[in-house]
Predict the 3D structure of the following.
Amino acid sequence: MRYRLFICCTALLGTLMLTGCLQSKVIETGDLLFVGLPMDYSVEGDTSSMASAIAAATGDEDQVNYIHVAILEVSGDTTFVIDATLKRGVARYPLDTMKEDFRLKSGDYPIFTVKRLKHNRNAARWIENAKGYVGRGYDLSFLPDNEEQYCSELVWNSYLEHDGGHIFTAAPMNFKSADGSYPEYWVWLFSRIGMPIPQGVEGTNPNDMARDEHLVTVSSK
C-alpha cells in the first residue's frame, strides 16, 4: 500500500454549490464533507504551489482524489463548516461562505462527497470536540504533537470513542511524487520553516479517511 498525502485545503478547491449532495436536508450534524478532484485533473506547468504538490504526491486507484475534509454542523436553517484551512486556520463558519473561498482557477467545480459514520449518535459530542480547536492555527508542519491542526488531523482529534480512543486510524504520511522525488513546493515550504520533510511520520489524510470502514456515503456530486 502506498500511503497518500494528508495535505488539505488549499486554493485548489472549487466553489461549493448548495445543490445535490450539499442540500441541508441531506446533511446531518456530524457528517463529513470530502472535497475531491478527478484523477485526471491536471496542474501541468505549475511546480511551485501546494496544488501541484498535492497532485504530484496523491493518487489512488479510484476515480476521485480527496484533498480536503470538513466537519458539518446543522444549526437551525444554517449549515456550518468546522475545518482547518490555510486561509482561516481552525474555524467555524457557514457552508455558504466556504463556497466563496474555494474555486479552481479553471472555473471547474471539485467533487463533493458527504459521508456519515455508521453510528452517528455521538455527533453532538464530536462537534463540541471540534469547536474546542477553533481559533488555532493551520498546522504547516503536519506533526501530531503541536497545538495547530490540518484538516484531517482536526477530524482525527475530534471523533473520539468514549474512552478517548481515536475512531479513525493514522498511518505514515507521504510527500513524494510517484518517481520518489519531493515536489518543489514541499522542499521550499519545509526549508522556510526550518524542519525536515516529515516523510513517514504518523498522520492522516482525506483520501484514506474517506475510505474508512466506519463511514458510509450519503451523497456525492
